[in-house]
């Protein structure tokens, strides 16, 4: 991979860091991260992020339409708000079509809500980092475990400050050309970030919020799914009034939280709940486990025979 940047972390030419996210360019997580990066005076900071919320769009990309990139004033940076997904923003930002050189590191975040377990698949934040990985640019996704009623916007600054040693350590390895290129990192910061227990290397688990569907009579009814995969309930109650036209024209459904699946062990979610800043190396392949591979190795040769005998 060609990379025209020259870099240092703490002296000499500054490394170039590009920030994206899925919550949108104006959200407190991204702004806090950018402020911490800029104020450290250790980085040249670029921002290429969605112009509106794109939570849970996974690795969706824009294919048929042109993207708009609007310059945005963010102190100490060169920044653009893009009419695309997180993966679009990363792809555009590292292409040299928007910025003159490829960044040394892409950081996607800081997301409002953790990204652990199976939620990694849904996450636009993780996709922003994964897209850089696809293109051989080192990357890290960062998420803060926002809990309604306990968290406040100042926690994003604390989360960014707590993540700064990881960012500098990554760039130090990149400079030495010893940083691995066969993975990217997913970092989750605990709710009580002030009293975090340190960094812990973890692996992706199988935790997930179980979702269902509820029929509603208007788009405003039924609450809003937050980027944290929890519900923001609507104060208005279900009402049959005014619903007849909607019922005759079409049916409306909204997601609702049904429960959760959590596993024990040294996985990302469990370690995060214990108060650790979790660091999980991720790839992009999705092979099944060994038992499943063995099963289908025995099963597949008999498929044609079974089909023929049924005719």
UniProtKB/TrEMBL annotation:
<keyword id="KW-0378">Hydrolase</keyword>
<protein>
    <recommendedName>
        <fullName>Survival protein SurE-like phosphatase/nucleotidase domain-containing protein</fullName>
    </recommendedName>
</protein>
<dbReference type="InterPro" id="IPR036523">
    <property type="entry name" value="SurE-like_sf"/>
</dbReference>
<feature type="domain" description="Survival protein SurE-like phosphatase/nucleotidase">
    <location>
        <begin position="17"/>
        <end position="208"/>
    </location>
</feature>
<dbReference type="InterPro" id="IPR002828">
    <property type="entry name" value="SurE-like_Pase/nucleotidase"/>
</dbReference>
<dbReference type="InterPro" id="IPR030048">
    <property type="entry name" value="SurE"/>
</dbReference>
<keyword id="KW-0479">Metal-binding</keyword>
<comment type="similarity">
    <text>Belongs to the SurE nucleotidase family.</text>
</comment>
<dbReference type="Pfam" id="PF01975">
    <property type="entry name" value="SurE"/>
</dbReference>
